[in-house]
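We both want to read discrete structure tokens more fluently, so let's practise on a single case. Once you have written the record down, we can walk along the chain together.
***
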Amino acid sequence: GHERPSFANEELAQERVYLVQILTQGIESGELKSCKDLYYTAEMIQTALMKFSYPQLWTRLTLDKLKREFDGVMDLLSAALTCNEKN
């Protein structure tokens, strides 16, 4: 019975590897702010978006309300991570 949670944790860890790569590329290109701990940042992004991977496991919200929450979370993440225009 312990294989499924272990597999899920391995899958989440692999996803974070890709998130770290995306964050690194964004920082190097100047599109994203520098982060003190990329792995922690990737984990928190993943946590913030987890509800939207399989929303039926987390909520009974209507699609419109779920879209509103998703848009709000994405706006917060974007504001927190994106560099401001310098022009």
